[in-house]
Amino acid sequence: MPAVPFRHRHLLGIEGLSAAEISEILDIAEQYVELNRRGGAKSALLRGRTMVNLFFESSTRTRTSFELAGKRLGADVINMSSEGSSVKKGETLLDTAITLNAMHVDVLVVRHPESGAVKLLSDKVNSVVMNGGDGQHEHPTQALLDALTIRRRKGRLQGLIVTICGDVLHSRVARSNIHLLNTMGARVRVVAPPTLLPGAIERMGVEAHTDMRKGLADADIVMMLRLQNERMQGRYVPSTREYFRFFGLDYEKLDAAKPDALIMHPGPMNRGVEIDSEVADDFGRSVIQEQVEMGVAVRMACLEILTRALRSNAPSVEVAN
Q: pTM of the prediction?
C-alpha cells in the first residue's frame, strides 16, 4: 500500500494537490533520478501499456521528456501532433477523444493552446490524462520538476523566498509554481511590468512587485519566465531591449538576491531578453540544465502514481483538480 493515497485519477493541475501528495511525487522522483543516472537502466513497470503524447502546440523539452519517461518505464509510446493528425483536417477535440477510446490508450499526455481543453478531454476518455500544459492555465509537471530541483539543492521548500520574474500574465508555469510553492510553505513573489501582471495577483498568495531589485531582495530562488510573444495580442512591452534593461536578469540585479540564490528558467530561453547569457551559464548558481534532467524523473514518478489503479486493476476514484 502506498504511504499516501493519491486521490486523483488524472494530473490536470497542481491546484487541488495536497502537500503530502506533492511530497510523495518528489520522493518517488528522487529514486528515478538515480536510476536514470546509472545509464541504460530501464523498468518494466508499464510493459504492455500504451502512452500517447498528443501535442497541439510545438514542444521539445516537455514532449521528449514525457517520451523518455514512458519508454524508461517500458511503455509503448506514440507521439502525435496536430500537424500530423486529423485535427489539422478539421476533426474536433471530442472526435479525437472518441478515436483514442477506440484504440484503448492507457495514458494520454496532452498539450493544448486553450485553457481547459485537457480537462475536457479527461472527461471524455477512458485513459489516464496528464496535462503537458494548457493555455494560460497550468503546467503541473514543470512545477514539480522545479520543486524537485530546488529541494535537491536547498534541502527544503518551506520558508524559502522564491521570486518569479517576467511574463506572469501569460505563464502557466508561473501559475503552477505559485500553487505548489504556497502549498509547500514557501514565500512567493512575482516581478513584472504592470502590463504583464495579472489583475489581483495578490489573491493567489504572492507579493507583487514592478521593481526587480525590490522583488529580488534576499531571494533564495530566482525563477525567470519566457516572454511569450505568441500569446500576446497587442503591445505589452516597448521593446525587448527596454524589457531587458528593466526586467532581464543580469549580475547587477542579481546582487539584490542572496549570494547563494539559485537561477532557474523553464526554457526555451531568450538570451539577452529575459536573462543574460553569462548569468544563465553560471556553473555555480544556474540550475537550468538540472531542471531538464529532473523533468524525466518527475514524469516517471507521475506515471507510476497515476497508473497504480491500471496495474492493480482496481477501480480508481477521481477527484476534480
A: 0.92
